[in-house]
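Reopening this ticket.

The earlier resolution said the output was attached, but the attachment link was broken on my side. Pasting everything inline this time so it's all in one place.
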Amino acid sequence: MDDLRNILNGIILGISNIIPGVSAGTMLVILGIYDKLIKSISGIFKNFKKNFRFLFFIGLGMLLGVLLFSNIISYLLSRYPWQMNYLFIGLILGTFGILFKAVKQFNPNKSTYIFFIITFLILVSIRFVKVPEYSQNIITNLSFENIIIIFISGFMASSAMIIPGLSGSFILIVFGMYNSVIKAVSDLNILILIPFGIGVVLGFLFMIRVVEYLLRVFEVQTYMAILGFVVGSLILIFPGFEFSVVGLTCIASLIVGFLISYFICKIDKGKEHAK
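Inline output:
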């Protein structure tokens, strides 16, 4: 059952990675596996069998999520962009109770709130950054220059994925690589996916080490910063509101997202008490 749950969690993470503006790091927090993923990767050899099993099924789910849902997500985003954004806002809001309780247990003092404010303001400022349009020059063949660009894009996107509130897809848009990567995934263009995948793996491992160190040495400050990222992500993906049928469907999507993450958190909390 745990393996199936990890595959489902991985699928959700895979889907979040292909949606511009949606943070996989935030989804890790929503799913309640942020700490576990960090510790499993950084300390994989301490309990290799258990950690490898967890990471294998998470990774399998992520791969399935990207391969199976890239076209579906692109369709939904093109047809129902506001409703999709409100769905993810609801998912984030549903975790706030658990998040604030998790931070409160560290008894943060007033000085640690500066880390919350800093990360919150970082994401709010991103909201006002003019993002370039998706690059229409889709890369399908390799040159030395393309390999470097694809590798760096993968490295930066996966690094951003670890930080709640930051979107790997958003980074790909900034680099003008979003369409190229989605096209490569849809067409299974191995020539493009190999350098991208290498960049993703190395960026992921690098940022995992950074976050693991911060959680170990500056635990309270890091959790306050994570909370700021998560709250700030609401501002980043908020599309606006209008009083119309679309507005009503957005509210419905928000409620559905809220209930989903709220009950996921309740289930996880129930499991912890059962242990």
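Reporter confirms the inline version is readable. Residues 81-274 form one domain. The radius of gyration is 18 Å.
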